[in-house]
Amino acid sequence: MSGGLVIEGxxxxxxxxxxxxxxEGVSLAxxxxxxxxxxxxxxSGKSMTALAVSRLLPRGxxxxxxxxxxxxxxxxLSEREMCGVRxxxxxxxxxxxxxxxxxxxxxxxxxxxxxRVHGGAWRAEAGRLxxxxxxxxxxxxxxxxxxxxxxxxxxxxxxxxxxxxALRPKLLIADxxxxxxxxxxxxxxLDLIRRLVREDGMGCLMITHDLAVVAEMADRLAIMTExxxxxxxxxxxxxxxxxxxxxxxxIEAATHRPAMPERARGAVLAEGKGLVRxxxxxxxxxxxxxxxxxxxxxxxxxxxxGESLGLVxxxxSGKSTLGRAVxxxxxxxxxxxxxxxxxxxxxxxMAPETRRAVQxxxxxxxxxxxxxxxxxxxxxEPFHLxxxxxxxxxxxxxxxxxxxxxxxxxxxxxxxxxxxxxxxxxxIAIARALITRPRLIVLDEAVSAVDARARARIxxxxxxxxxxxxLSYLFISHDLTVVRAITDRVMVMKAGEIVERGPTEAVxxxxxxxxxxxxIxxxxxLETTR
Amino acid sequence: xxxxxxxxxxxxxxxxLVASLVIFLxxxxxxxxxxxxxxxxxxxxxxxxxxxxxxxxxQPAAARYxxxxxxxxxGDFGTSYTYRTPVAGMILDRVGVSxxxxxxxLALSTAIAIPLGLFAAARRGRAADTGVMAATQLGxxxxxxxxxxxxxxxxAVRLRWxxxxxxxxxGAGILAGMKALTLPAIALAAPQAAILARVAxxxxxxxxxxxxxxxxxxxxLTGGQALTRHALRNAMIPVLTIIxxxxxxxxxxxxxxxxxxxLPGLGRLVFQAISQRDLVVVQSVVMLLVCAxxxxxxxxxxxxxxxxxxxxxx
Lengths: 530, 314
Description:
The complex is a heterodimer of chains A (530) and B (314). Chain A is of the alpha/beta class and 530 residues long. Chain A has 2 domains: 5-254, 3-Layer(aba) Sandwich (Rossmann fold); 268-522, 3-Layer(aba) Sandwich (Rossmann fold). In chain A, 34% of the residues lie in helices and 26% in strands. Chain A contains 18 helices and 21 strands. Chain A has helices spanning 46-53, 79-85, 107-117, 123-136, 153-165, 183-200, 211-215, 235-240, 245-254, 319-326, 352-357, 375-380, 392-405, 422-434, 452-469, 480-486, 504-509, 514-522; strands at residues 5-14, 17-20, 26-30, 35-39, 61-69, 72-73, 90-93, 171-175, 203-208, 220-225, 228-234, 268-284, 290-304, 308-312, 334-339, 342-344, 358-361, 440-444, 472-476, 489-494, 497-503. Chain A is globular and about 70 Å long. With 314 residues, chain B is an all-alpha fold. Chain B has 2 domains: 2-73, no CATH class; 94-308, Orthogonal Bundle (MetI-like fold), CATH 1.10.3720. Chain B contains 14 helices and no strands. The longest helix of chain B is centred in the first third of the chain and has 36 residues, at 87-122. The mean pLDDT of chain B is 87.
């Protein structure tokens, strides 16, 4: 057998239950200098495959089968021998750049540690090696004495990559390396990984849920679902002529366009005028207080009745702050937000009618519900905004109606939130937003943490609800594909200012501002031949 | 960093001032007459009047408070009513026993607890971990005076390695002094070590679940290396908090142990002063202990900053 990683019949069982591999086990090969994209939705077993190969499965999980790296059987190695393989022969990059580095250790020491634990390198030599690795990943300007909290997310992910490639391993395992990054940092990190793989001739197992991310960089793809590989092949043929129905469903979902109803723009429903929001930032100066960070620098906008307005930009651009301002949750330094002409804000006296008119759906389907309450109570929560809200049987009917509107069963009202998947939880969040019969829903990265197929269904649902209830949306997202699919107009935000706005299709096909052009260029695209 | 220390130092000084005011008010102002209280029910009126004059109780409360503060600033803590000697000298002698004892016990407890916590965390969920946890449970449950008596029986009475009690004074040499403090320090340290080991274990296990531990393992560190090089320091914040609290307790809370071993420490001094109603001594010792607690809190705050670079910015 040739070099690289060869996995044959790999299976993982936990407490006697097979959680990975199905009856015949997972089989894969990653040749030297090759990038294999391992694609699957959450829970498909793609990360577990990587952990099984590096023998880092949680305690209690038993792996069987074969995994050879350059002909050496990894499954037969002792733990001590395996420690010699990790870091030296197999480098690994993980998803969370914020937590994957030790917060108490300078980045240089963390990179140098890779060299030091594998012996041979003295402190000074390991330091030089670390510096060289940091230079290679494009952190030449950053002193090795910096701590992780002093770096941005993209820079931290580069530190993670430097640790993984410092000893020029034979195999690089990248588990969702860019999922937590902005599109522009994502594009740069993907470029970097591709360059390093080519330069060092290492094999790369690239694990992701995002077809568009691997479409441009993987040589071959393996599609995984329910712990099994259902299709493998060269990237172009898998994407261009998928054989398995699951692959087809994934591709369809990734490029899905919901049928937004054609609606006439009505009167202005929500508007902001000269919104300024700032926070103290940086050290206190001796005189004159602290420097201030401006999240919003005099933003004005209008959102019409029956309109779906997109808001895009990188993290830190102020788009979530603007979303919160529209919900009346931000203490503005100046400017005013009006819903239907009535001022809203933390200190404004708001009529119940205004309060109930705007509802929100946030990103995190796991953290945004109280796990101790049943769905019925969670969904009925916004009723406290409505004087004379229905009680008893009428309330129950309203909850069931809202659940029905988002495609859930009336019996789901009696369940707890942990019984639902991420996609179902976002539906419950939408049901909660619908219950007061609002006119505007602010959706802040509402589908970003949801798998492709569930996301496609939620977008369909939003399109349907918009027509049925005459809803307006403020749709905040970093994902241009989704924004293109669901919005009529779009605003592009950068550093607290709106740099471009207009009809979505026009802005995204003929961007005028250089920042919009950069965003579009950096966004990974999935172009299929169909 | 400097700003942080300055802010902390200022709030420390304020806490001290508030504490002194509270102590003064509780002991001097409300309710009744301290002189009558100190002399008991059957005192003759002229004795009470003499003591009132001596304590300056005829002065207004504010003036007395300021005089007390000013005296302490000069190192004058007043004169003990029972012993007729300056309180400052008495306290200094006792601190010479209590402070080394507290430090000794703290060093022992930390030296036992951290390795024990590491050991249990590395073997979490296995028999060794369960054994250590059971032992610490016992260590917390056993009263330290009982342990002290057991130690005396075994090491002093039977083996005759140590004296059963008493303190020769530091004049007899450091080794002799340390030797006299060893059994009491062990008796004090055991329950503290048990608590600290459990805190360390819990903090370590929580840290071991962090992503950067997985990163460390991916670099090729063994489980043990990841534990000592990455988890230990990250688990130090809760451990430091407990160490700080324990030191304050050890300094003042050793009364029973000091009594078992006949040690002339602060705890015994307070105990005697209270039973003799010597308010001058009580007030000074309490103030001193408050000082010590606040100072230790300050030191723990500095230790946090040394451990965690993220705190250096603010």
